[in-house]
Design a protein that fits this description.
Largest interface: A-B, 89 and 75 residues
Order of helices and strands of chain B: HEEEHHEHEHEEEEEHEE
Helix content of chain A: 25-40%
Number of helices of chain B: 6
Helix content of chain B: 25-40%
Strand content of chain A: 15-25%
Structural class of chain B: alpha/beta
Number of strands of chain A: 21
Oligomer: heterodimer
Largest sheet of chain B: 8 strands, mixed
Shape of chain B: globular
Strand order of the largest sheet of chain B: 2-1-5-4-3-7-8-11
Distance between the termini of chain A: 103 Å
Radius of gyration of chain A: 33 Å
Strand order of the largest sheet of chain A: 6-3-9-5-7
Structural class of chain A: alpha+beta
Radius of gyration of chain B: 17 Å
Distance between the termini of chain B: 25 Å
Shape of chain A: elongated
């Protein structure tokens, strides 16, 4: 045997008479049963890290323990000193603050840290995981001032070790601070809307972590502004983290229907999107995001919430049911953060590679404030570095994670927004470890790994939540960002479509046309793209071509209300009012609330000298517009004029 | 008596005590644990079994619990091949009722023993839960360590084990082959905190 089988620990004093057995048979050393320490008891100082008490009332030989104590005391000088570190006075406050929020019933921790017993029976394990930095879980290096940072100071870490070394004394009862009170129920108050999984998903007992996507319809009858979300589940130890997105195309719902059981599996949620570029996530132990005053995202009727749950098997089947509390505001947003996504899909990691690099750079075209960052990689991710180099050459570290751990991914929000001037170069530099030395490697032996959504593939992106100074600057930021995307992926026609649409909205008609015509060469048969191109051609005065393109749009996409509206606009500008009206009404059949169709019909009706009909269309248009938006204001004024003129 | 000191016992004194214990001529066949009814059990007494496997566990150890399906698979595979498997609970604060609930919740078909005095812990030298100690027919410990290498450390789980150390040992013993005694480093909740 390479190790001595008999006990080498000598924290035990063999006590005669202990242990049953045939009289005369030598008994093996054993630990007498530990019980609560009490003042005045006979103690035998113990070997470091082990418990100290020996004492079974009635079975201890008092002479032997006193002798041992005397022996110990003669070897040590300060026998009568009170303990330097006690649980009640010193350790409990640190535990309540840093550990108990997750390590308590109803939270993700698999065991509680609320009482002396809870902590004492895991004390040396606590020393190990805190000195390794595994707990509390927080991946970034110190430096940036992130909200909700979970970190123990060096003295706090040393405190646990010192306490264990002293034998884990409990201390004076009056020193124990009152245990913290945590709110039950929704932390952000009563939600305006709660959407819930209709039935639980059962995580299997065994196997790797599970990703399950559930689709929750959001029943709103008109567009609403969402301030924030709060997620709760009925089986917190199983839920490792959650990502929430929205889907207004129905694609997620179709995938759900195709998959037996509630939701569908896998990590691929590419057909969902982050609303207004906002990352919605949930990680354990953090207070839900109350939102930022002035910030809200638009929720249209017919939108589903797609909730991707990252679930950890526990050894027995675990049912999980999650619900989401939605908090609305009636105030339209005054601030419009932009979600800028750096990253690359050019990932091709050979097996055995230990530091495969992946980088991206972006130059800010406008001043911004950085609200937060969400880095993302899968199991091979190793180092995450994000920096900003200002125009004057100063380099600031925004985020540094020396050892990425997919299981503890998180969104990092600055306590105070970080201002960065126009001209700043944002840099993302990641590395990946596809060797055997990476225990989290999904493949053994390691294999070639490429870009993909599933956990055995790799990704590398960084979502930065930026706050530009004005809507115009936001648009400029988006234009620059889309140009950056198209530089990397020139064939990405959807990005080109977005860019075209944006340029058109900014009045840059020629630039918009250039993008939309190029997009059409890449993707000739898309009705949405053709509809937008037709609109742009119309604005450029190329009305004949506009009509041709829009007629094709409507042919390819007969259910696309906006194509009919745009076709109507083309007819309208050519003076072909009857055809225009027919197109607008077709649009309304497909989308009864369409403000654009109503607005244009209002114009036709007004031109016909029918103010009541015009006013009615304006009212319908206003219903669909968020209150307080510039267009709504303009329409309200027009409506007032019309009504006054009657 | 004034509040006692809490200082570690100096090394040399500790070693003396260890030597004393060793010289006491301890016989491991006499090591006693308890079954869930509180009756004494001598798990290392002479046996006909090809192997005896003691899996140390706790009801509140997430790593141990995550191994439950694997333990059940091993039990099913080796039960009819002369291998005796036991779950051993070293937490003295864990009563029999809690252990019974635990066995049921995780579907363990194995007999459970309590080791509140850490007698078997001491003999085998296990440090964490889950950790296995395997004794051959002659009562010699031939393996102590992890069930497999699924965990490289806390929070560092492989998607699948690359080495199933315990299973390899049991395969050999069940087939009547010699196993060279060896240990592996197990990851889990520390037993030392429990006494």
């Amino acid at each position: 045997m390479r190790e001595v089988p008999h006990p080498t620990r000598a924290e035990v004093v063999p006590v005669p008479g202990q242990g049953a057995g045939v009289p005369g048979t030598p008994t093996c050393p054993s630990f007498p049963h530990k019980r609560e320490s009490r003042e005045g008891e006979d103690w035998v100082p113990a070997f470091a890290g082990m418990t100290t008490t020996i004492g079974h009332a009635g079975s201890v030989n008092p002479g032997l323990s006193a002798l041992a104590l005397l022996a110990a005391c003669t070897l040590l000088s300060a026998c009568a000193e009170p303990p330097a570190v006690t649980f009640n006075r010193d350790v409990a406050p640190v535990v309540y603050e840093n550990c108990a929020p997750c390590h308590r019933p109803g939270e993700v921790g698999p065991f509680p840290f609320l009482t002396y017993e809870d902590v004492a029976k895991r004390a040396s394990q606590i020393v190990e995981v805190t000195s390794e930095g595994f707990m509390p879980p927080w991946l970034p290096e110190p430096g940036p001032d992130f909200a909700g940072e979970r970190r123990l100071t060096e003295p706090e870490i040393a405190l646990f070790a010192a306490w264990v070394e002293e034998g884990k004394p409990e201390g004076e009862p009056e020193d124990l601070p009152p245990p913290p009170q945590w709110p039950t129920g929704w932390r952000l108050g009563e939600p305006d809307l709660v959407v819930e999984m209709p039935e639980p998903f059962v995580v299997p007992a065994d196997g790797p972590d599970v990703f399950r996507n559930v689709v929750l319809p959001m029943p709103v009858d008109r567009p609403r502004w969402v301030r924030t979300l709060e997620l709760r589940s009925d089986n917190p130890p199983v839920v490792h983290h959650v990502i929430l997105q929205i889907d207004d195309t129905g694609a997620a719902r179709r995938r759900d229907e195709a998959d037996p059981g509630i939701g569908f599996g896998g990590m691929d949620l590419s057909d969902s999107r982050m609303p207004d570029g906002q990352f919605l996530g949930w990680t354990p132990g953090r207070e839900p995001d109350p939102g930022i005053p002035g910030v809200a995202w638009r929720l249209e009727p017919g939108t589903d919430l797609t909730v991707q749950l990252h679930l950890t098997p526990t050894g027995k089947p675990e049912p999980v049911r999650a619900k989401v509390g939605v908090f609305f505001t009636d105030e339209p947003p005054t601030l419009h953060p932009y979600g800028l996504m750096l990253g690359s899909e050019e990932i091709d990691i050979p097996p055995g590679e230990t530091a495969y690099p992946l980088s991206d750079r972006f130059v800010l075209p406008v001043d911004v404030e950085v609200l937060g960052l969400y880095p993302h990689a899968h199991y091979l991710g190793k180092e995450i570095e994000v920096s900003a180099t200002l125009p004057d050459g100063t380099r600031r570290r925004l985020l540094s994670i020396p050892e990425w751990d997919f299981n503890w991914q998180d969104e990092y929000r600055y306590r105070q927004p970080l201002p960065l001037p126009a001209g700043t170069v944002l840099a993302m530099d990641y590395t990946y470890d596809n060797s055997e030395d990476n225990p989290r490697n999904p493949h053994y032996p390691p294999r070639r790994v490429r870009y993909g959504f599933e956990s055995a593939d790799e990704m590398g992106f960084l979502l930065l939540r930026l706050l530009p100074g004005s809507p115009e600057e936001r648009d400029r930021l988006e234009v620059a960002y889309l140009e950056h995307v198209l530089e990397k992926k020139p064939g990405e026609w959807q990005a080109r479509l977005r860019l075209g649409r944006l340029l058109l909205a900014r009045g840059e008609v020629e630039a918009a046309l250039a993008q939309l015509e190029r997009a059409r060469r890449d993707e000739p048969g898309d009705a949405v793209l053709l509809s937008q191109l037709g609109l742009a051609l119309g604005r450029a005065g190329r009305t004949g071509e506009a009509l041709e393109v829009l007629e094709e749009a409507v042919r390819l996409g007969p259910e696309l209300a906006s194509a009919h509206t745009n076709l109507g606009v083309a007819y309208h500008s050519l003076g072909r009012l009857a055809e225009a009206e027919r197109a607008y009404r077709r649009a309304l059949e497909l989308d009864p609330g369409s403000p654009e169709a109503h607005l244009n019909l209002a114009r036709i009706e007004a031109a016909r000298g029918r103010p009541e009909a015009a006013a009615e269309h304006l009212r319908r248009a206003l219903e669909a517009l968020p209150a307080g938006s510039p267009l709504a204001e303009a329409l309200s004024r027009r409506l007032a004029e019309l009504e006054a003129s009657r | 008596m004034s509040p006692p000191a809490h200082r570690p016992l100096p090394c040399f004194a500790a070693l003396l005590l260890a030597a004393a214990a060793a010289l006491a001529g301890c016989s491991q066949g006499a090591v006693e644990l308890q079954d869930l009814e509180g009756r004494p059990v001598r798990p290392l007494a002479d046996t006909e079994a090809a192997a005896r496997v003691f899996l140390f566990t706790r009801s509140d150890c997430p790593i141990s619990n995550r191994y439950a399906p694997e333990v059940r698979r091993l039990a099913e595979r080796f039960a009819a091949q002369g291998v005796e498997l036991y779950l051993v609970y070293p937490d003295p604060e864990e009563p029999a009722a809690a252990i019974r609930s635990h066995l049921e919740a995780f579907g363990y078909p194995l007999p459970a023993l309590r080791d509140p005095r850490h007698a078997l812990v001491a003999i085998s030298g296990v440090r964490v839960t889950p950790e296995a100690a395997v004794f051959d027919r002659g009562g010699r410990m031939v393996y102590r360590g992890r069930i497999d290498d699924r965990y490289a450390g806390f929070g560092k789980a492989r998607p699948e084990p690359t080495r199933r150390d315990l299973e390899e040992v049991l395969e050999a013993l069940a087939a009547g082959r010699e196993v060279e005694p060896h240990t592996t480093h197990a990851i889990g909740c520390f037993i030392a905190d429990l006494s």
